[in-house]
Amino acid sequence: MAKRYISTLRMILRLATLLGLAFAAANARAGELEPWKSKSNAIIVDAYEMNSIDWEAMLADKRISGFIAKASDGLPESFSCTGDHGGDTVAHCKTMWRKYAVSRELYQTRRMLARSHGLLWGAYHLARPGNPVDQANHFLDYADPRDDELMVLDLEGIDPEKYMSLEDAAIFAGHIKTRTGRYPMLYTNHVTAKYIAANRPKHRLLSRLPLWYARYKPDIRQVFPMGNWDSYALWQFSSGTNCGKKRCPYRVPGTLNDIDVNVAAMNRTALRSIWAGGTLLPEKPMPLILVARADEGAGTSSAARATATIESPPLLISRAEAASAAGEGVDMMATGAIDFGRHDRAVRLAASR
After folding, report:
1. What's the distance, CA 92 to chain centroid?
2. What's the pTM?
3. Torsion region of 227: left, alpha or beta (phi above 0 gives left; psi -120 to 50 gives alpha)
4. pLDDT tens digits for 32-78?
5. How many domains does the chain have?
6. How far apart are alpha carbons 146 and 180 in whole angstroms?
7. Does the residue 302 lie in any domain?
């Protein structure tokens, strides 16, 4: 009896291994390992108003193909500085309004410089708690994006007390689409992207926005595919987090170590053709769970189960069979037919008997 039970468990483990290997083969893709070291891949700089930039020095780096600037931040400041400021003083409100006016002039100056030197241009909105429609309008009023310019929603986390909620982020993106005819790109970190991907039935819009991925590691081959994202649109790989005096993944001339640097997995020409974007990614089916069961035949029956989470494309297991001769503990390899067909195929039960 013990031998037959061990035999069954071995068969189940082999079936699970078979499925795992098949799934890995179906999703084999080239990984992403330090793509910024390939001189053919475009480099994109992104900056906020406090980043110091020597434009003449920076433009000497011919790999730099684009510039994304911080535009709006949360809700707009009150020009009148009257009414409830949430504990803020009128004097501070006026200071912030002056800062807002100066930052917007800096934004416009940087855009003029970048575009005049042939760089692609983009703008991002730093998402905060508060009315998402008002924030979307604030972004469009501030950035005044042209048809060939990238728009980005910067979502730093999933805590709605600190950042715009995911539900409000979808409203923001939808309002941008309503006013401009294009969706923004989503900028976020690994934790937030992974959460959105895992819960994409609830966050269907966000999970289909092109992903600007922030992760300061040299290798992300084990990250994608992640939900609807087969890969990143842009990868922010360097910032003050991992760039210092001694080591830095990529140094941009004329800037300090705190500048954010990004890479696209394509050259400047290819990037230009898709830069402004504005369309949603295809929606993939959710992972399906396969349950494989093996029953012992004669006498007292024992059962064992193996489960495997199968990402897209789903596997169609038509049948898997294994036999164990009564009293002899014969261990036979499970076999089955695997179909890597259309995404909408359901996963069927793999039965062992």
Report:
1. 37
2. 0.73
3. left
4. 899 999 999 999 999 998 899 999 999 999 999 999 999 999 988 76
5. 1
6. 9
7. no
